[in-house]
Amino acid sequence: MAITTAELADAVDTFAGRIHAAKEELTTLDSAIGDADHGINMDRGMSAVREILRELRQGDPGALFTQTGMKLISTVGGASGPLYGTFFLRLGTSLGETPEVTPRRLAEALRAGLEGVKARGKAELGDKTMVDAMTPAVEAFEAGADGDLTTALAAAATAAAGGRDRVTPVVARKGRASYLGERSAGHQDPGATSTTILFESLRDALAVTG
Amino acid sequence: MAITTAELADAVDTFAGRIHAAKEELTTLDSAIGDADHGINMDRGMSAVREILRELRQGDPGALFTQTGMKLISTVGGASGPLYGTFFLRLGTSLGETPEVTPRRLAEALRAGLEGVKARGKAELGDKTMVDAMTPAVEAFEAGADGDLTTALAAAATAAAGGRDRVTPVVARKGRASYLGERSAGHQDPGATSTTILFESLRDALAVTG
Amino acid sequence: MKKLINTPERLVDEELAGMALAHADLIRVEEPNIIVRRDAPRKGKVGVISGGGSGHEPMHGGFVGLGMLDAACPGAVFTSPVPDQMLAATKAVNGGVGVLHIVKNYTGDIMNFEIAAELAGAAGIEVKSVVMADDVAVKDSLWTAGRRGVGGTVLAEKIVGAAAEKNADLATLAALCQKVQDNVRSMGMALTSCTVPAAGKPTFEIGDDEMEIGVGIHGEPGRERRKLATADEITEALAVPIIDDLPFKRGDRVLAFVNGLGGTPLIELYVVYRKLAAILDGRGITIARNLVGSYITSLDMAGCSITLLRLDDELIRLWDAPVHTAALRW
Amino acid sequence: MKKLINTPERLVDEELAGMALAHADLIRVEEPNIIVRRDAPRKGKVGVISGGGSGHEPMHGGFVGLGMLDAACPGAVFTSPVPDQMLAATKAVNGGVGVLHIVKNYTGDIMNFEIAAELAGAAGIEVKSVVMADDVAVKDSLWTAGRRGVGGTVLAEKIVGAAAEKNADLATLAALCQKVQDNVRSMGMALTSCTVPAAGKPTFEIGDDEMEIGVGIHGEPGRERRKLATADEITEALAVPIIDDLPFKRGDRVLAFVNGLGGTPLIELYVVYRKLAAILDGRGITIARNLVGSYITSLDMAGCSITLLRLDDELIRLWDAPVHTAALRW
Ligand SMILES: Nc1ncnc2c1ncn2[C@@H]1O[C@H](COP(=O)(O)OP(=O)(O)O)[C@@H](O)[C@H]1O
Ligand SMILES: Nc1ncnc2c1ncn2[C@@H]1O[C@H](COP(=O)(O)OP(=O)(O)O)[C@@H](O)[C@H]1O
Ligand SMILES: [Mg+2]
Ligand SMILES: [Mg+2]
Ligand SMILES: [Mg+2]
Ligand SMILES: [Mg+2]
User: Fold this and answer.
1) CATH code at D144?
2) Most buried by CB count within 10 Å: which residue of B109, C47, C285, D17?
């Protein structure tokens, strides 16, 4: 039941496709409490990743994620570039040269990614950032990683969305949204939204059909 | 049946009041084929004239018009400042120190004013400028100057309006409107409109009641 | 209308007060609203003045200082100044060897400067006037008011000012200004209308997918309304009529001036400059000097103008000569 | 959306191409989109670089040249540049004695510069970073992203650049930059939203009778929406929080910087400057130097910002030192 590089590459590709589709939505969310570019930024980065995906598909999962992270760092910019970049880089480093990924190994890698994001961005839970979607998602996946993969992925995606929605009423304390003070309350965070899309992409691409 | 300085001052005052009332209309006309300031310009000048009118009322008609002209020149600017300024200056010079003005003398003075405007602005009949209202107005007044003053003034005002309307369909060849080329056709000229207001003011203020 | 102003009536006065405070080292502001070089008059130096309606900042007041204008006469917004201003400015900069009036070709400017020159002459000051009329969007015809003076005026003021600084005489300066006029052509376009403060609403209506080609600097509508186009297409639409008019020819050296109209960000002007450079390069015309920025504006209008000046060694030398004004300095 | 652009995707590349052509005497543009001083690297001189999203022109690219920046890294519009750019710029200006990164305090800028500094360090180049965070509209708190870097950055780049030109060492320059940061405060306001080209529509909706007080330079809505007010009231609404924050006190000498956000005509900035001068005068604060113009913009946003820097003799001397860049020159 281990996951192959090709399957993980499909997941990355799914994420890229959904980001492209959500480009406007993410940018609109960022207009309200940021600078109207989150969808544009993520789409620029994931489109660049897509271009090297065919090649990455040939290698190991560690390289897939490391290269994805590096590509994001060198094409996205903004806050999301280093953050998503670090996330994928840490995923890659954690997986190392493992040829196949078990759900448990994936859980460890996701944890490493999350910790990387927190170290880079210094955001805490409740600051109203992508961390608020990523943390419950990783925790839910960890909790289910020894059981059924599909179930664990579904739980992670649901937890991401829950985290995203939980901080919508909250006042932002990190990123551009924090400049708005009280006015940021009531708006959905763009980064938490793209993170939810990430976990939904993992769920839908990696789910064991049947 | 001669006209006194006080009566002429009333006419100037009437003109000032009507310009003030027509400020927006004139500016709107100038928006279409000019630079959106004719009403503002004329109102700035005539308001300044109004401030010295009480004093001018004490002197002779020549001084009234000369001072009106000088005030316009030094407060209006634009094309209309030197043109209306010259018009009133020439009226004043023509009247000299005459204590009272007969219709015939007024006709001569208006002719001098018109010639001054043409010399200063070098516009010909049909160029779509104030000259197109002023010329028929002066001619009509000249034609009637030996008859009834009220009738002659009415004819002048009607002729001004006729001249104004005659050049509305025409392509402008002078002033800012000329920059528009063909696009100036179909628009009423702001300066011809203010000149019509001038002759209507003379008509209404100087008309022999009864 | 959204503007950083108090009242339309006080706008020009308050702007001049701000300029006087900000640039006390360069200028003084005197009644009746004239901006005079701090050290004017300078004995033995021809005074160079210009003026016109306000709303074109930094022109002309931002060009008063060493190596450019000795005085500027700002009228009400988009309204030629009154002769009293030009007369006062002429007296203020009169160093005993005459004063040059650089006049943009607008009926109002011409007439008001004319009256001022008559009055200055009567007061014993020799005045020569040169009329700038570089806008190729307007047909050059004896039967109309003729071409408008636009971007070329900025270049003329710099070049003539440099020669005046070196004590060229009045006749020489007038001839030099005429030489600039003879070799300079411009054209502008607008994405939006401007809003005259006293009018309170945009001068013209324009659709979201439309632009005006051939606008002047007073919110006068252009000669033609077209569908909105790309920066490259717009640059072409301005550059080609300019080039063809003089015409500018293979082997010519030019000063290329890309100007913003007041509401245009600098980033866009460089996009236009890039295309302009490519067009000129394609025709074998060399850009020897350039100027990119908002120097002759139309209040808050979004849009740009292009000006090309054919250069020779004399003009290059004068362009390169030191200038120290609020808006141009090197 | 009405802009002089070809496509949003090509905007920054084409702008840089235009800048490279217009200012070939000052700069060169290199992959991956960095603007480098023509004569960099200079042996024995500390390199000073900055960078940030595009859309703030002339900042930072317009400040590359003698006496200011050695390189600038423009990101996509309103998006921090990527570490590759800062790394390449750091290498390009490395004269062997270290490189200073002047970073505006935005999460993205901080992180991307941080990564670049790590990489540069790994490549054996000593890097120090100073973070500019002068926007008093944002509460200064350990619990948030902290204050934004805005107008103070322009002044820091000028002053630090002047010292670097005189071969001050890296530690001295970092301390000097921090000194500017410690003495500078800013605040901005918007009359209109800007339009991010790739987004194609205004970032925020705003009524005809409304304004945003406390906006940043990225079209972020401000802290507060208010009814439109006069220029004097707006100037007061910006100046007082700035003065009270440091606080600036009676007897202080300051540099007063009135900045346009991209869609604001110069005439309006002088109206604001006039009132600012009156406010400072009323509090016994002396304007020793000033800067009025659009130097740190937010695309086509109409609005302004005010920056005050408390000066001492050292800062005045460095401000007055020669500078030759596309946007600042004396
Ligand atoms: N310090 C941080 N830690 C984690 N996530 C952050 C942090 N700052 C911002 N973010 C996330 O980044 C998102 C914005 O990304 P983006 O718009 O691409 O970058 P920028 O804010 O530079 O324009 C926010 O919605 C938020 O979720
Ligand atoms: N050469 C001219 N001769 C006579 N009248 C003219 C001439 N040029 C313009 N005008 C008149 O002036 C009017 C415009 O005046 P105004 O708007 O106040 O000045 P400006 O055109 O300088 O803004 C035009 O409508 C026209 O009637
Ligand atoms: Mg953003
Ligand atoms: Mg007009
Ligand atoms: Mg006018
Ligand atoms: Mg951004």
Assistant:
1) 3.40.50.10440
2) C47
